[in-house]
Specification:
The complex is a heterodimer of chains A (about 325) and B (about 200). Helices cover about 60% and strands about 0% of the residues of chain A. Chain A is built from 15 helices and no strands. By secondary structure, chain B is mainly α. Chain B has one domain. Chain B is built from nine helices and two strands; from the N terminus they run H-H-H-H-H-H-H-E-E-H-H. In chain B, helix 3 packs antiparallel against helix 7, helix 4 packs across helix 6 and helix 7 packs across helix 9. Chain B is globular, with a radius of gyration of 18 Å. The model of chain B has no long low-confidence stretch (mean pLDDT about 90). Classes of the chains: A mainly alpha (about 325), B mainly alpha (about 200). Chains A and B meet through helix 5 of A and helix 9 of B.
Chain lengths: ~325, ~200
């Protein structure tokens, strides 16, 4: 049996579907945690977001006569990540619009999977923050601790997240409580206010560990991103620039979600090893700058989006041209 | 004559095809009314500067043509600017610095350099009308897209008319603010350009 076919002849066991559904699997524990912390509405928003992402992709590929690949998993990831980036008390249309923007404008118009410059989910978040700032940054609810409330919006219960407390020029007592081991433990477990999928560092780390072992994400990007945030805020903590310790900084807000699941997106991170280290470290520096001196309490999304722009440049660092 | 006019609107559309004069197109199109106002000002300046430059084209020395174009254009821009300040002060305040900036609008200078300096007056006027109208249509479209999505109303005129509520009150109260911010301008112009190119290629 001789088969004649053009090169390449060695195929990798990894393919798009496997990788994408692997990432979806890694996100499942985080989703379950968020249902536990925030109630069924978290699942409701997440499903709406995923449906919107898949539907947008299907419509676009149908209208433009491309192969229909809306179920290859990438749209599902985008949908889940967009939902993970919004507060649980958001109106139902917020994740729908966010996923539509992410898939249609940021992903498909740039050429579809593999051609997008920016991480679709993060760009979707940036779009939502710019368009509905009050819904995206002032609408936090405290976790409900496994009482599993229903789908309707819980009203009358807004509470600042640990990070948004920090930007409101807190007094000493608040700072002490933010620095306390109890607070760190709460942040690590995820039992605190925040976006749907960003609160639990523990579950995010479990998911990411799976991705690193399977080789679906690169630990170098995550390590350099989170590590550089830890080191820089550590230096600033001892210099007195930021009142809270570096452990608080890496466990609060979206550092874990961004550093583990968004910065490591295969399409929008560099291919070279050197480029990956630089990508992570510069992203971390940007994140700290945005956190400490910019108007919003959080800087993770913008830091990764800005570094996404530099990926084509970083990819040129290590290119060896044959014959030289 | 007629062909020159139509070419100005479609084949040589200032924003979508030539991609010049983008700066006012991005900056003032936060509402459809602003877009029309800016477009009218550009039509006036373009027609008269094209006419005058075309009449003087045999007198204007080649080496000094750019400063002379600028002087001619700025004359008409000053007329437009003062007229708008006198008769439509709210619009003039909305457009702000972008009316005086028509002087250095590369669209107008580009037509002076590329068309009216080489063609007889009646063609130049038709070219000015066509290009100006094409510009106005695009500004109106961009303003429409951005105003409807960004503010939830259409054709609002400050102080005169609050505008039509296109998608109802609920949408107006939580409209896509991004669309009237600068990124919205880039999004609208990119989508229009893409759509226009698609239509042109598959005609």
């Amino acid at each position: 049996m001789l088969q004649l076919s053009p090169a390449p002849h060695i195929t990798s066991p990894k393919n798009i579907k496997k990788i994408m559904y692997g990432v979806v699997g890694a996100l499942i524990p985080v989703l379950m945690g968020s249902i536990y912390f925030f109630g069924w509405r978290a699942l409701f928003l997440c499903s709406l977001s995923v449906l919107s992402a898949i539907f947008t992709e299907w419509i676009f590929q149908r209208v433009t006569n491309r192969d229909i690949r809306c179920l290859d998993g990438s749209a599902i990831i985008t949908g889940i990540l967009v939902a993970f980036n919004i507060p649980v008390n958001s109106p139902w249309w917020l994740p729908v619009v966010g996923s539509f923007f992410a898939v249609f404008i940021v992903k498909q118009l740039f050429g579809g999977l593999g051609y997008n410059i920016f991480n679709p989910a993060l760009a979707g978040r940036a779009f939502l923050v710019a368009s509905w700032p009050s819904l995206m940054t002032g609408n936090w609810t405290p976790p409900i601790n496994g009482t599993l409330s229903g789908i309707p919006v819980l009203d009358g219960m807004t509470q600042a997240t640990p990070l948004s407390l920090l930007i409101m020029k807190p007094n000493l007592n608040v700072i002490q409580s933010l620095n306390s081991p109890t607070m760190i433990k709460t942040l690590f477990i995820g039992n605190t206010g925040g976006c749907i999928g960003e609160t639990s560092a523990l579950l995010l780390l479990i998911g990411a560990l799976f991705l690193f072992i399977m080789g679906y994400a690169d630990w170098r990007i995550s390590l350099s991103y989170i590590g550089s945030i830890f080191v820089i805020t550590g230096i600033f903590y001892f210099l007195g620039v930021t009142p809270v310790n570096p452990v608080f900084h890496i466990f609060s807000g979206g550092v874990m979600l961004g550093g583990l699941f968004m910065a490591t997106d295969m399409v929008t991170s560099p291919v070279t090893l050197k480029g990956r280290w630089i990508f992570g470290i510069c992203g971390g520096i940007l994140c700290v700058i945005l956190r400490l001196w910019a108007g919003y309490p959080e800087g993770v999304s913008y830091s990764i989006l800005i570094m996404n722009m530099f990926v084509p440049l970083l990819d040129r660092l290590q290119v060896r041209i044959f014959g030289r | 004559m007629k062909q020159t006019f139509l070419d100005g609107i479609i084949k040589n559309n200032m924003v979508l095809v030539l991609a010049i004069g983008l700066c006012p197109a991005l900056a003032v199109t936060t509402s459809a009314y602003n877009g029309i106002g800016m477009g009218m000002a550009v039509i006036f300046v373009l027609v008269f500067s094209n006419l005058l430059i075309s009449l003087l084209r045999n007198i204007i020395p080649k080496n000094l043509r750019i400063p002379i174009f600028i002087v001619i254009i700025s004359t008409f821009v000053t007329i437009v600017d003062y007229t708008m300040q006198a008769y439509v002060p709210p619009l003039s305040r909305q457009l702000g610095v972008f009316v005086p900036l028509i002087v250095v609008n590369c669209g107008i200078l580009g037509r002076a350099e590329g068309y009216s300096y080489k063609h007889p007056p009646h063609y130049s006027v038709m070219d000015g009308l066509g290009i100006g109208l094409g510009f106005t249509i695009i500004l109106f479209l961009m303003g429409t897209i951005r105003e409807i999505l960004g503010q939830g109303v259409w054709l609002s005129i400050p102080g005169v008319f609050p505008g039509f509520q296109v998608f109802g009150e609920a949408f107006t109260n939580s409209s896509v603010i991004l669309m009237i911010l600068p990124p919205g301008g880039f999004l609208a112009i990119a989508l229009l350009m893409g759509l226009f190119n698609h239509i042109r290629m598959h005609k």
